[in-house]
Amino acid sequence: MKKPRIGIVTLGCPKNATDTEVMLGLLNKEGFQVTFDNDEADICLVNTCAFIEDARKESVRALVEMSAEGKEIVITGCLAQHFKEELLAEIPEARAVVGTGDIGKIVDVVKAISEDSSLRVVEVSDVPNDHDQTVLPRLSIGMGASAYLKIAEGCDHNCSFCIIPILRGRFRSRTIESLVKEASWLVSQGIREIILISQDSTYYGLDIYNRMALADLLRALHEIEGLEWLRIMYFYPTEANDELLETIASLPKVVKYVDIPLQHSHPEILSAMARPQHPEKVIERIRKKIPDCAIRSTFIVGFPGETEEHFEHLAAFIEKHRLDRLGVFTYSKQMEVPSGHMDNQLPEKTKKARRKRLMEIQHQISTERNQALVGREIDVLIETYNEQKNLYVGRSQWDAPEVDNLVYIKDADGDCIIGDFAKVKVEEAKPYDLIGSVVG
Questions:
Q1: What is the pLDDT of residue 131?
Q2: Does one domain contain both 359 and 215?
Q3: Per the structure, how many domains does the chain have?
Q4: Alpha-carbon span 82 to 125, nearest angstrom
Q5: Edge-to-edge strands of the sheet including 229-232?
Q6: Burial class (CB within 10 angstroms; exposed 0-12, middle 13-18, buried 19+) of 86
Q7: Is 430 helix (H, G, I), strand (E, B) or coil?
């Protein structure tokens, strides 16, 4: 088979989506045709996730579906990194397995299996600690006027529930120069919002500059002409220092939004998780340093040993601190990490009931916070048009793509342009959405 058409299935987090864009960019540069209709594909690249059990099941389902359709498959991502031998043994249609630290080899892998129909390739480094500062080509898979910029890979923290260091290796920063170069290219392609991602963005630079340098990176990216919004995902509580918070507050292009996974509130559960104590302190500092800032956080319920008292502490914490955006996950047991071996594992029924309770609390908080915006004029990045509702759809600076609120926009005079910004007066508030009209 010569120059097969490459289809794509991407699962998991934004970091995975960025890896997919890089792999497709490399293949496209070498003359491989990329198709977004997998019915037309000769080979399907399935970029998998293995972060929690549900993600593993979703990845396996995708592989089984592709296999049932008779597609030849290249398996990449976290599932490939973790279960390389098992995947080849269990899925006859799998022609190759490529690990998280080996995506730069995707062209050689696809060429090899294209030229030899009997060949099966495993390209998975035992420890995925690659450290390439090259700005690799990217082929967009659909974020509109926004794009993710992966500033680092891996993680040096050892949270007792998290498998990321096993799947992605130790923390590795990219240089400011390489990131500015890639961001400038993205902006030249029409990108208006750049979203900085890594497993722990606040840790950025410590490995290559001997200090946390996210503030320096923000200042450098802020100089890019044509860039409108800079967003940071994934703060670590103890690393949200005053310099970083003051930099966010002072730079107009950096949106006033902090995504800081706190995971729990009770000291005993935080200790068992190997997470920082006193999450209330960092919330107070963020609100003091960054006026009008939206705080997003995530929490885990049903961690091993979580008692009713522990859970009620968390519920009271959420009611008191009234976070703007909130995600709640039920604990996912994995035997590769310490928490999988802890005593007092909770039943799924208990976990789901606790998650439901927290989301009911947050529903009311989100409703009240949105109602407080009625009458305000806000900037909205317009992303699409909803024909059924006859409304444009976008996001405010306080909302990240795919996880946060939407703004529905009435545009009587035809001023809205997809991929551009509009000034919108908020007229109505739903629990997780706003509705308004274009001003002027």
A1: 67
A2: yes
A3: 3
A4: 10
A5: 146-150, 193-197, 229-232
A6: exposed
A7: coil
**pLDDT band per the 50, 70, 90 thresholds, residue 128:** confident
Q: Which of the 8 DSSP states describes residue 266?
A: -
Give the DSSP per-residue string, 16-73: HHHHHHHHHHHHHHTTPPB-S-GGG-SEEEEEE--SSHHHHHHHHHHHHHHHHTT-EE
If pLDDT is split at 50, 70 and 90, which confidence band does 277 have? very high
Structural domain containing residue 388: 377-438
The CATH number of residue 60's host domain is 3.40.50.12160
**Cα-Cα-Cα-Cα dihedral of 433, 438, 439, 440, to 10°?**
170
Q: How far apart are the C-alpha atoms of 54 and 37, rounded to whole Å?
A: 25
pLDDT for res 50:
82
- Find the CATH number of the domain harbouring 392: 2.40.50.140
Residue 357 pLDDT:
98
CA distance 95 to 75: 8
Q: Give the per-residue pLDDT at 407.
A: 97
Contacts of 118 (CB under 8 A, 6+ apart): none
| CA atoms within a 13 Å half-sphere pointing along the CA-CB vector of 20 | 29
Strand partners, 98: 76, 123
232-258 pLDDT tens trace: 999 999 999 999 999 999 999 999 999
- 139 is a domain residue: no
| pTM for this predicted structure | 0.92
Largest CA distance in the chain: 65
In this structure, what CATH number is given to the domain that contains residue 248? Answer: 3.80.30.20
Closest CA to 297 of 310, 286, 289, 308: 286
